[in-house]
Design a protein that fits this description.
binds 6-aminopyrimidin-2(1H)-one, Rossmann fold, alpha/beta, 5-stranded mixed beta barrel
Length: 315
């Protein structure tokens, strides 16, 4: 594709403006639904709605992974009937698209008028204090692929979106994080369920294989609390064009960090070996488990995100 990112976003916008009814135009909040979290679509009134599959939008990479639907949903937030746009299913880097093309949806959201995005994902926990089903508000990230040059802003700078060298030290909006903590408290979740809300650092890995134990130990020692295969490229492109960001991870599995002494599994014998193998078996990540955790948490995530969006739209 020889066209610039700006041209691509413009053509995608023209297409959407033809398809989406006027009453749903100009959403100021965009939401990306992570694996198993498509239920966020229920925050939108059944009518009027407009769904556009990514495959119909010019310059969009098609979504392929099992469990990811792949469409834009335009609708009115049930809580206050204001227009929002959702990405139900996202496109991942591991599907084989370029890191630049998977973030075109964010550029399109900017052109639609989106000022704040809420990005959700399913992530593995590296923090021993987190349990499956817990929620983690991201306050920072480690862009492993990006540090090595696989970066969504690589290439000629799209000056009409933002500057060449954007700062990311304040990528995760402090005010939105505060509000989310307050809303969570007001929901009284601490007493009704064991699900907890944390704040932590997300490490972005390319995937599609889950991380090895040694890789998990590296990520943990780097200061990451959760690990996943999405979100960071979107957030970087959003910050480049000055979209405010709130990101939420659902812990779908505890990544396994265990190893024998100095990483030598075979050197340990007897009951410690048994314990090690049990821990490894128990912690083995799989896609079904990731989707199931999403389903169980969906109602809580929906409620928290719905309230946060209402808050944003009323201030
Ligand atoms: N889990 C997950 N790694 C994991 O362990 N959902 C993504 C990446």
């Amino acid at each position: 594709d020889n066209t610039t990112l700006s041209q691509q976003a413009a053509e995608a916008l023209t297409y959407l403006q033809k398809k989406v009814p006027a009453e749903l135009h100009e959403p100021v909040v965009g939401i990306t639904c992570g694996s198993g979290l498509s239920g966020l679509a229920e925050s939108v009134l059944p009518e009027p709605r407009c769904e556009i599959p990514y495959t119909d939008i010019p310059h969009f990479p098609p979504s392929t992974v099992h469990g990811h639907a792949g469409k834009f949903l335009f609708g009115l937030l049930e809580l206050n009937k204001k227009p929002i746009v959702l990405m139900v299913g996202r496109v991942h880097y591991y599907e084989g698209h370029s890191i630049q093309s998977i973030t075109i949806p964010v550029r399109l959201m900017k052109r639609l008028g989106v000022e704040t995005i809420i990005v959700t994902n399913a992530a593995g926990s590296l923090n021993p204090d987190y349990s499956v089903g817990d929620l983690v508000i991201l306050n920072d990230h480690i862009n492993l692929a990006g540090l090595a040059g696989i970066h969504p802003l690589r290439g000629p700078n799209a000056d009409d979106f933002g500057t060449r060298f954007p700062a990311l030290s304040d990528a995760y909006d402090l005010d939105l994080r505060r509000r989310a903590h307050q809303l969570w408290k007001s929901l009284g979740r601490g007493t009704k369920s064991t699900r907890r809300l944390h704040e932590g650092v997300y490490a972005f890995v390319g995937g599609p294989s889950y991380e090895t134990r040694a890789e998990c130990r590296i990520l943990r020692s780097f200061g990451a609390d959760v690990v996943g295969m999405s979100t960071v490229p979107e957030i970087i492109v959003a910050r480049h064009c000055n979209i405010r960001v709130f990101a939420l991870s659902l812990v779908t599995n505890n990544a396994v960090l265990e190893a024998g002494p100095r990483g030598d599994d075979i050197a340990i014998q007897g009951s410690s070996a048994q314990d090690l193998y049990k821990a490894i078996e128990k912690g083995k990540a799989n896609h079904e488990e990731v989707l199931a955790a999403g389903q169980n948490a969906a109602a809580d995530v929906q409620q928290l995100v719905g309230l946060l969006v209402r808050d944003i739209l009323s201030t």
